[in-house]
Amino acid sequence: MAQLYSWGARALFIGSALGLSPHRNAVAVVAVGLEASFELSWNTHDYRRCRSAVIPPNTLQHFRETSGEMAFLYVDAASNDYAQLRALAATNGERSHLDLRCEPFLIDRLNRLRTEGAYRWRDVRGELDTLLNGGAARTADARVMQTLQLIHEDPAARLSLAALARHAKLSPSRFAALFKQTTGVPVRRYKLWVAMGAAVRSMQRGASLTAASMDAGFSSPAHFSSAYRQMFGMEPSRLVWSPATLSS
Predict the structure, then answer these.
(1) Alpha carbon of 174 to those of 81, 141, 189, 197: distances in Å?
(2) Chain centre to alpha carbon of residue 149
(3) Range 124-157 burial, b when 16+ CB lie within 10 A, else e
(4) Rounded CA gap, 151 and 28, in Å?
(5) What's the pLDDT score for residue 107?
(6) Cβ neighbour number for residue 41 with a 10 Å cutoff
(7) Domains of the chain by start residue, with CATH
(8) Percent helix, strand, coil in the chain (nearest 5)?
């Protein structure tokens, strides 16, 4: 059974490799073979066998010879997460993006989630946060946390930077800096991730693509599908049709 989790400007899919054709993502992707290694080609380079890989945004990628289930961790290209993952990659030569130094940790924790289910999510999420934050707790400014609650309560509102800054009683420039320090991504990107997560959760509960898109603040189903495809390299239905556990 496939599992899909989203939190902040991150998403995690656990399941089959989805039979993806060559594609690009607007986000960075960490691919992990949970049961076996796989072959990966990017930007038309030769296929290389690995067990994990960090794939930069806007990279033409293709998987083959996948066996068993895999995990795909999506992080925003503008985030501190991506910088940390690049630091965790190998450091030499042509395989610099393959076989991450944290690979044993990822395989162990994500396999726990795969086999034991969503009740493990809270623990695994905390450990992933620690990994992505470089082992340190991210500073959580109380004023920004209050605005995060507003964003999550009504993703469709798409409150402007100026409006959020006023709510936090900060100048727009100061608020923007504190927001990225707290969340790891710029305000606009964070709002898009939250809206996409809201739309997918709505579809998981049985809403139509049209209703889910509009309720999450997208101008049309085509707008949502296009934004989702640009972000993740696939149509939203590629994940939604599969039985899944979706958490935030």
Answers:
(1) 21, 12, 17, 27
(2) 19
(3) bbeebeebbeeeeeeeebebbeebbeebeeebee
(4) 23
(5) 97
(6) 15
(7) 3-132 (2.60.120.280), 142-183+186-240 (1.10.10.60)
(8) 45, 15, 35
Output the pLDDT for position 7: 86
Q: State residue 26's pLDDT score.
A: 79
| CA pair distance 239, 248, nearest whole angstrom | 16
Which residue, 71, 62, 1, 12, is CA-closest to 193?
12
Would you give the distance in Å from CA 241 to the centre of its chain? 19
Rounded (5°) CA angle 43-48-50:
120
DSSP class of 93: G
pTM over 0.85: no
Residue 232, class by beta-carbon neighbours within 10 Å (0-12 exposed, 13-18 middle, 19+ buried)? buried
Of residues 134, 107, 83, 95, the one with CA closest to residue 31: 107
Q: What are phi and psi of 150, to 5 degrees?
A: -60, -45
Q: Would you list the DSSP string of 126-184? A: HHHHHHHTTTSPPP--HHHHHHHHHHHH-GGG---HHHHHHHHTS-HHHHHHHHHHHHS
183: tokens are 């969340």
Write the CB contacts of 241 (distance below 8 Å, at least 6 apart in sequence).
none
Angle, helices 121-132 vs 80-88, to 10°: value is 80
In degrees rounded to 5, what are phi and psi of residue 245?
-105, 120
And the tokens for 220?
């049309």
